[in-house]
Amino acid sequence: MHNPTRRNKNIGTPKQGHGKNNQLVIPFHWEEGKDFVERLDSYLAIKRTVNGKEYTFLVERTRKQCVHACTIDDIAQMISYIDPNDLAGLSIIVFRQPKFKEVVLNPAWGRLKYFIEIGDHEGPAIFLEAIDMRRSFYWPKKLKIHEQQEVKRLINDGHEYETDKRKYTFYPTVDTVRNTQLYRTFIHEVGHYVEYLEKVARPAKNLGRDTYSDYWNAYWQRPVNEREVYAHTYADRVARELREKGLIPFNRILDSNMTSKEGLRMEDFILV
Length: 272
Known about the structure:
The protein is an alpha+beta fold and 272 residues long.
């Protein structure tokens, strides 16, 4: 028999919704309809011409102890090594300062966005995130195979780390983050873009909007792991070929005079 005086055992628990109103989430600004990565607070647009093509670098100001490990000229030099066909239609590189919530909830070395609008700049873009050099990061020891491979990559990038029974703890430096972002992340995101060109943009060219949507939906419905394997395979091949040619690694390119002339802040690229 129902007893109205008996307390519901779900009261005050997540099952009944307790705590849902104060969950930590990345806000979405519906009035603008933009993804969080498109909201830059204070940035400069810098131009570089590489292989006869103009690229725009959007450089966001960093917080204290956060650094853009790669420089504009680092990325420009890397672009000069990549087949121009692999970058067709892509000309925006964003050096972004993530918000505190984003670092906690959606950390990344970099990202590819197939279309962005930031001020007057629009189109596909590769993002590289500024890293807080005070913050260590960790990976648990119970990992899937592809996660184990990523831990090995981080170790190969030179990151200092400690281990205990449960986790790997990594301690970033400007040099090791640069190794990860310049020689792996950037090329990895190019790999995602190349797959998009091959499976969506080029097959659907001049075939109409509906056909493009069909190709796009088929591409996006593929398992995430398949898309990641493609990008990793591309990045591994390109990096291996560049190493065999002696083109990478190369010294960090940071000209203080050029940085000042272009209105950039040195403290966005070095720890002070």
